[in-house]
Amino acid sequence: MRFVSTRGEAPAVDFEQVLLAGLARDGGLYVPESWPAFSSAQIAAMAGRPYAEVAVEVIQPFVGDSISKQTLAQMAGEVYAGFGHPAVVPLKQIGDNDWLLELFHGPTLAFKDVAMQLLGRLFDHVLSKRGERITVVGATSGDTGPAAIEGCRGREAVDIFILHPHDRVSEVQRRQMTTVLDDNVHNIALEGTFDDCQALLKDMFNDAAFRDRVRLSAVNSINWARVMAQIVYYFTAAVAVGGPHRPVAFSVPTGNFGDVYAGYAARQMGLPVDKLVVATNRNDIMARFFQSGEYRAGTVHPTISPSMDVQVASNFERYLYDLHGRDPERLRACMAQFAEHGGFRLTNAEKAATGTLFVGCRVDENETLETIAEVHAACGEIIDPHTAVGVRAARQCRAEPAIPMITLATAHPAKFPDAVERATGVRPSLPPRLADLLQREERYDRLANDLQSVETYIADRASLTRPTEKNTR
Ligand SMILES: *Cc1c(COP(=O)(O)O)cnc(C)c1O
Q: What is the mean pLDDT of residues 274-300?
């Protein structure tokens, strides 16, 4: 499988390169040259099989010859055996044809573990084969960081630097990052918003000299391998409720548009997905886009679902590329308009095309709290605020009650105990392996929102560029 850049000005690359590069050199995002297709019979055959086996089926076409199927199966087996539930991503029923897909049984209790645990292994495998090292840099609004750090900690060939917006992630989220004291883990608290962190990350990738010097790589949702790993659970969940013989709808708590884009990818690969509800909090750039056809950034407001406090959705470009007939020139024109004028608008025909699959829905803070309380009262389930945004949007926007609606439960409630307690009176507790998190030693550095300072900080600490390096290869 080859991967092409959405901006059309970088060469096509193979899986190893797409894994290691993250962002393309022309500033675009990599997408597969064509979508692998699964027949109805192939999808039906996924029913009842272990998660790791289905993962190999879904991932193999993207990986191609880069990694043997046997090696991939071994990696997936090990990764998903480390999850806290034998079904890896169990489905729970919370109403008539109303389901929760629990994606939070990984080490950091958020859905991002599903992809990131695999990504860490993929990096180590590919890099050790090539005798190389990389510097992973990521920006997080809360959950990418812990999951990335857990995926990369202690890995031989990787240094990891994670930028989080100072004072804008929950204490549990911060501590899940800053209490990891492995030598290859570096936490940066940036004086700014998540979008500032993301903008700095983009600038670092666009600084070719720096990028080459530290061998920069990304684990943010712009890395294709993350999207790839997230496609898997759309397949397992759909076949569990009767797919591919009946269509299925998903409601996806959305920030950077990575998770819901994976649902779109599953549909492109043959899964009969009827609707994708794009559920946002009041940071609603994506909900507004699907309602109005206009993509226009707003200001970021802190909410009780902070992992979705995003006003520039980085994975959206991948979808936009397809929407514009995979014409990089048209894509570049849109992005240029966005950069210059802060927004752009689809034609009526384009907007109609998005509406056949996507439904945008915004949920405010009161509705989120109400939904946590409602679900708790109705069936005893405690859901986190991100999941609650998804459940509320699912119930508000579902058009076809006969079609199963699966809401992606993206975080464990104990990651957001204040909101959950406010809504239900119950304070959810952390699972035993994280019980002493609030007592552990923390380590991080606070930096100004300034490209030069951040680049210097990274270059001084990455093994590849550190002056007194012992273990450089
Ligand atoms: C990251 C995250 C989201 C948003 O996912 P995107 O892929 O960025 O749209 C939603 N909920 C939680 C808990 C998250 O960590």
A: 95
Output the CATH code of domain 133-220+443-473. 3.40.50.1100
pTM higher than the cut 0.85: yes
pLDDT range class, residue 466, cuts 50, 70, 90: low
Q: Is the CB of 56 under 6 A from ligand 1?
A: no
Q: Counting atoms of ligand 1 from 1, which one is nearest the CA of 104? A: 13
Q: What is the model's pLDDT at position 472? A: 42
Of 280, 261, 373, nearest to 320 (Cα)? 261
| Residues 134/215, Cβ–Cβ less than 8 Å | yes
What are the residue ranges spanned by the domains of the chain? 86-108+227-424, 133-220+443-473
Alpha-carbon 26 to chain mean position: 22
**Annotated catalytic residue: which of 69, 92, 112, 351?**
112
Q: Is 244 in the pocket of ligand 1 (CB under 6 A)?
A: no
Q: Return the amino acid letter for 454.
A: V
The two domains 86-108+227-424 and 133-220+443-473 share their CATH topology (first three levels equal): yes
CATH number 2.50.20.20 given to 86-108+227-424:
no
Q: Is the CB of 309 under 6 A from ligand 1?
A: no
Cβ of 138 less than 6 Å from ligand 1: no
Name residue 62's beta-bridge partners: none
Asked whether the beta carbons of 112 and 147 are under 8 A apart, the reply is yes
Whether the CB of 412 sits within 6 Å of ligand 1: no
> Cα separation of 134 and 119, whole Å?
13
Known catalytic residue at 415: no
Please tell me the residue having the least CA distance from ligand 1 atom 15. 143
Which of 108, 223, 256 has most ligand 1 atoms within 8 Å of its beta carbon, as the pocket-test mutant?
Answer: 256
- The rounded distance, in Å, linking the Cα atoms of 392 and 217 is 36
Please tell me the distance between residue 389's alpha carbon and the centre of ligand 1 in angstroms.
11
> What's residue 64's pLDDT?
93
Beta-carbon contacts of 372 under 8 Å, excluding residues fewer than 6 positions away, are: 382, 383, 384, 385, 388, 419, 420, 423, 424
